[in-house]
Amino acid sequence: MSPRAHLPLRAAVRTSRHRGLTLVELVIAIAIIAAGVTAVLAAYAAVATRSADAMVRQQAVAIAESYLEEISLKAFADPDGVEGETARSGWDDVDDYAGLTDVGVRDQAGAAIASLSAYTVTVAVTATTALTGVPSGSAPRIDVTVTGPQGVQ
Questions:
Q1: Exposed, middle or buried by CB within 10 Å (0-12, 13-18, 19+), for 11?
Q2: CA angle, corner 105, sides to 150 and 147, nearest 5?
Q3: Hey, which of 26, 54, 90, 125 would disulfide with 98, CB 3.0 to 4.6 Å?
Q4: What SS3 class is residue 63?
Q5: What is the Cα–Cα distance from 133 to 147, expressed in whole angstroms?
């Protein structure tokens, strides 16, 4: 028989050892958990920021593709022989777009698109010799640069 077997239940409870956390152990555990939560939240904030940049970058690519398609569908040589059409809706060849800078995206008629006002589009049209056997004046290079909010390109 064990030494405790003859003791009443109340006495057995008093003699058992209770284990718990001291105040120092509790403070250390809280500090470790706080450091871990801080690291996780910092990583989450970095990911959230990058995901917004990716959306802006994707929008800039779509805008650039739209401008490039509009320009490349125009004739490479001026069809009417008149240079310097003033309104964008009257531009009839690729060279008319040279030096275009739109602060805020515009449609083909030149009307502003309000939801894309934070983007700036610049177009450069230059002669190129990149195509073998094609004279440089017959193969223009079209560069469309789109700058989004906070300078994202």
A1: exposed
A2: 30
A3: 125
A4: helix
A5: 35
